[in-house]
Amino acid sequence: MKRILLAGAGVLALTAAASAADLTMEPAPMAPAVAPAAFDWTGFYAGVHLGGAWGDFGTDVWNDAFGNAQAAIGGVQIGYNYQINQIVLGVQTDFAYTNLTSGTSIIDGYGANINMDWLGSTTLRAGYAIDTWLPYVKGGVAYGNTQGQLTAYNGAVTSDWSTNKWASGWTLGAGLEKAFTKNVTGFAEYDYYDLGKAVYNYDDVGFGVDVKNTTNVVKVGLNYKF
Fold first, then answer.
1. CB 63 within 8 A of CB 39
2. Which residue among 86, 142, 166, 178 is buried most deeply as judged by most CB within 10 Å?
């Protein structure tokens, strides 16, 4: 009987030791993987852009008198975004240089050119952030400087009259922006501009014309987020 009790005590001791060994050898649980944080679009930014513009200069009398014009465009932009969950709201101002020009022969002995040399806008933007991607729409006021030039041909003598006009109207657009790093983003965008009507009066020759302008712009650019 004594031997049986001693044998049982030994088995219990060995079992307890084995259990203790298992407890001490069990590896610590792995820490859960942490998902990378989504890109934060909130903040000020500034950048540059370039692209192409094509427009239509029409008049009340001859709707397609000047026809379509095409030119390159390049400029700068500055703005601010504020992100609420995945919604990104912002405001942006941009200025661009271009040389959008169209000409026509009005009547015998007279020709006219219309030129837009710069174009700008101040817009509100609204987008939906998908991590480092931001599709967005925008809209606001547009403005630019246009110049109307009237040329009279009289034999060997050519006379020119030109008038600069401030034109203003509205713009709508849409684009897609991508964050490459925490500070650098790139975008592609389409914008439509309607700058209303500019009245060019040439009092010296008793001639005037009302010119309407609509412009389309496709551009790409880079922004630096502060």
1. no
2. 142
Position 3, amino acid = R
Q: Which pair of structure tokens corresponds to residue 3?
A: 């031997």
Backbone dihedral angles phi then psi of residue 89, each to the nearest 5 degrees: -115, 145
117 C-beta neighbours (distance < 10 Å), count: 15
Number of neighbouring beta carbons within 10 Å of residue 1? 5
The whole-model pTM stands at 0.74
DSSP strand pairing (207-225 vs 87-107): unpaired
For 129-146, the pLDDT digits (tens) are: 999 999 999 999 999 988
Beta-carbon contacts of residue 73 (< 8 Å; ≥ 6 apart): 50, 51, 52, 53, 96, 97, 98, 119, 217, 219
- The rounded distance, in Å, linking the Cα atoms of 98 and 71 is 7
